[in-house]
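Team,

Forwarding the record for the chain on the shared tracking sheet. I've put the sequence and predicted structure together so nobody has to dig through attachments.
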Amino acid sequence: NSLLIHPEADFSKLPDMLASVVTGAGRLPWALSRVYVSESRADEFFEGLKRFMSELTPLTSPTQASAWTPVGSRFDRTAWDSLKALVTQDHGKVIVGGEEHGSSHVSPLFVRDLTNCSTLQLDELASPLVIVTTVKYPHEMVKWTNTGDFGVCASVWGPVEKAQKLAAKLQVAEAWVNDWWTGDQAFAGLKRSFFGIPDFEWKGEFFSDVKKMTIS
């Protein structure tokens, strides 16, 4: 699932954009784990990301509002270590995050410079790993989002008309424009996507041919 940030996006909304990849951190079927940002805004994005992460605190009580949620009892630390090793093997670079805070919280790990055909780019990770890819043109965001075998949802931020055009080309079951997770998620995704967790017995058995678009 991808977050696409148009080069004309309002970066004052960056905390809202980043909340979409921190909440659930890839462990929920509608969580976002791929970020595409234009080269022209990359430095601004990385600066804002590091500032956002420095201010992020773990959610330890239902009364709190932090987007950094616990990893849950199913979190496999052996698999997590293997994913981090793959980042190194694929010549990826760590931007920020990845620290462990006790048994329930792992700070989402943001990495960059993985090739667009890297195994990590194309697979379902179900982990707190977020892959950031810089592109020259907005249409590349669509191209690489559609390259993988999965497509539950995506969030596109930018001027409404331009963001809509990008969203309309995405091979996902639901696309949000200047928003994320509005409470009416698609039941299943396109292609090989599923709605649930990786070891649900019904993985891959439900598909959707109808795409929903929500605009805020």
